[in-house]
């Protein structure tokens, strides 16, 4: 016998009905009669009248986060979306996981990481503010960085630093952070062997295995302990045993840096190191503009501890990232030499992950970090802070391929125009005029039998091909009315993961002056999320 699943009855009364019913009971009317008249369950009305439950009580178990905490998350996601850095589902879950851990909340989640059901419910609770959108993926030549964009970035950040009195500070207070992958197998292809030997083999471990390392350095070459990420749930004892003091070990399921591991590094490694070495606060920490490791607790922690977390301009790290510009290339060469030395000292053994930190530490010791980083920050225009220090000749200019793209787009538009014009020519002039008037007002004012044709015309000739239309429909860009940052320039769209959380509303009073400033306290009345 097939049993039908029971359907839960949702409330069919409004909050206004409940208020009227409570007032009716207070005026002396029968509780049961009022419940029947307003179609409210008797037990529900009795509980509300007795004060057992109030209007803010919701059904189901107690929420994991309070309303204030969830509203803070929504505000943070809104702000990042307006600034051109929309947050993904994973970044939201990372933030919630860190909040639950820091506040020692008891949750039904595995490792305090919210489930898919919680995520779906969160989106429903904030459906008026947040929605899911798939960002358009743009090729590299369509997001070419321009000199004007970089100079605008320097101007915007200079204004922010000037307002904080951080424009001309001691260079030991200016840091850059970036991650790099290092292979455990040597990529040397040339070896000296016996003349005539046809096949040259070099025994090694997996030649594609690499470890992600997070390095931080200031203008004077001072380097806090770096973070080496390992794959797995637990760290083997040998890794921590052989790891030098200049590095710390982190772990994740994928072996990559996550929002949680990045937060732990800033909180437990970078900040204590600055305090121990008597680095004066506030400090400036420049990070990659495309980093996906930002979480709400990190933004608040940096704000509370006077760490100015500033995003470099996206897709311009090859010009503006001091570590990328000056350090990584000589470090890779030094690492290669140190790796060869280690293999020779160990009778040709392949480097394992337990000894990786030792080899990388020796590679760093081969370099004059102060000279390298002084040059790197200067060439990047970050210290001294100057837009003129950038070598703009290295910018990717408008190539012939880009011109070909423009021609191709124009050809596609012409093709679309042809089809749209052909379709409109098949419609009577009076009907077409009515279509255009309805499109302007937004309300169909014609016969019901023509509604289907109107909607098809609207989708094909107006929404799908606005350039083919013989009239202009004025549309208001909602995002332009939300926040002054969105009015300055069109935010460049970069390739991000699908199903990215996009934004529709925001309270601009809580936002920092610059969209590139990542450290702020969006939860003005909440001092617990750290």
Automatic annotation (TrEMBL):
Occurrences of domain HTH psq-type (ranges): 4-55
GO cellular component: nucleus
Subcellular location: Nucleus
Main subcellular location of this protein, as a coarse class: nucleus
UniProt superkingdom: Eukaryota
DNA-binding region: 31-51
An MF annotation (GO) of this entry: DNA binding
Gene3D superfamilies according to UniProt: Homeodomain-like (1.10.10.60)
A Pfam family this chain is assigned to: HTH_psq
Record keywords: DNA-binding, Nucleus
PROSITE patterns: HTH_CENPB (PS51253), HTH_PSQ (PS50960)
Domain HTH CENPB-type: 57-132
PANTHER family: HTH CENPB-TYPE DOMAIN-CONTAINING PROTEIN, TRANSPOSON
Name the UniProt record assigns to this protein: Transposase
Lineage: Eukaryota, Metazoa, Ecdysozoa, Arthropoda, Hexapoda
